[in-house]
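Form P-L/3: holo structure prediction, ligand zinc ion.
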Amino acid sequence: MKPFLTTLLVAGSLLSGQAAPMPTLIIDGQNNHDWKATTPVMGKVLEASGLFTVEVATAPDAKNPALADFKPDFAKYKVIVMNYNGAMWGEATRKAFEEYMAGGGGMVVVHAADNSFTAWPAYNEMIAVGGWYGRNEKSGPYLRWRDGKQVLDDKPGPAGHHGAGHEYVLDTRAPQHPIMAGLPAQWMHASDELYDFMRGPAKNATILATAFADPKFGGSGEQEAQVIVINYGKGRVFHLMLGHGPEAMKCVGFITLLQRGTEWAATGKVTQKVPADFPKADAVSLRQ
Ligand code: ZN
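OUTPUT (holo model):
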């Protein structure tokens, strides 16, 4: 039955001029965050756009020998959403993922997924900047926004930090980019961690939005990159540092960026409209 129904749906989509939903894979299973709670939230957000059908690949525990055989069939998917911060994958899996991305694949990196894989150079190139787990000036520069432009800061120091969670303003820095087109210049994000002192190779990376890491909350005092796109070979990466947990993911700004960024990572385009309940510069907007 299932293939038959799928065929009908695809045919119906073609008749109505709509593209069929794109196969999308969320990877989880290890994370110092509550991946069991956030994966279903992100899956629902993505499917609500009508653009994606979401499957989940859950990696075995770090101590489980089966982790060595964890190897999703990346090529089956238009885009891979990383909700994984954990033990290194096997060499064959890493190579397959590098080939998938270099050949034109899409990846979305959410929050602590940019803490993962300090010792995997290609992954760090894909995400541009990361934090924690031994990263420092050898990992690459800090990526920040100063005087109206993107700046690479080679100052020595550790990578990855956040102050106390709070509501904060996102500043759009690339209003012409398809992901950002039509979004306000400033909008208020729901209470969340604000990652600062992130560093890495930062090659082929464009900052789409920053936030001021206010020292009042323990932040760096810099405009820190929060939303970044990266070209890796023919592949596209959307890096979204927001999203510590399910509460922060109720923010319509988070929801909209996840939907639009995932479409862009999959296709290079964005066809979705900005929703009417998008947050304002001085007002958070949540969906329950
Ligand atoms: Zn967090």
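COMMENT: The domain at 2-267 is CATH 3.40.50.880 (Rossmann fold).
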